[in-house]
Design goal:
Helix 4 packs across helix 7 and helix 5 crosses helix 7. This protein has 191 residues and is mostly helical. The protein contains seven helices and two strands, in the order αααββαααα.
Length: 191
């Protein structure tokens, strides 16, 4: 019995923006870490999808097909910026005197140091909040959580040390994570 032609071979470009733009943007932003570039790549993906719609065979979903186009766009972007053949290296002065005197190749100059400092501060603040939340756990929960997730002890070693079963350990870990999530939601994410 022959398989009937299914409408899955049909693309609906009129629905792409409403159905897939957010998903594609989130996919791109994680890989390029630039808001405007991610938006441009999604637009290029839609444009390329329109141009190659006749090649869509329906072997995947519309979204999967668009993701594969976006992946190629991201790869092309990185190839382009990494293959600036024939360009002279532009050197920039970094320090002009003392032991630190020297130049940077322009494309390797550190970017947005302020942003990095902010990220480190925020990361330290989050780390401190996590420590505070762990301190609010019942003593046994805190001990098991630290041993397993922070100190990375083996399950077997923790069970021997604390005289508990592996299933008991995982119950404690689960309860500790639940309480930590609640504490972080109340004290970090909602501030």
């Amino acid at each position: 019995m022959a398989q009937p032609t299914v409408a899955s071979h049909q693309l609906d470009p009129n629905q792409w923006i409403s159905k897939y733009s957010d998903y594609l943007f989130n996919y791109a932003i994680v890989r390029v870490n630039n808001h405007d570039l991610a938006k441009d790549l999604v637009q290029e993906t839609f444009f390329a999808g329109l141009k190659s719609a006749k090649n869509f065979e329906g072997k995947s979903t519309e979204r999967t097909w668009l993701i594969s186009i976006l992946k190629r766009k991201i790869i092309d972007y990185y190839r382009k910026i990494n293959s600036k053949k024939g360009q002279a290296e532009v050197r920039m002065n970094f320090y002009e005197d003392g032991d630190n005197e020297g130049n940077w190749i322009e494309e390797r100059v550190p970017q947005t140091w302020e942003n990095e400092a902010e990220k480190r501060i925020e990361s330290r603040e989050l780390h401190n909040q996590i420590d505070d939340c762990i301190d609010f756990l019942p003593e046994k929960y805190a001990m098991v959580f630290r041993m397993k997730t922070i100190q990375e002890f083996d399950t077997e070693d923790i069970c021997k040390e604390l005289d508990i079963t592996p299933s008991n350990l995982w119950v404690i870990i689960h309860r500790a994570r639940t309480q930590l999530r609640k504490c972080l939601e109340e004290n970090w994410f909602n501030n």
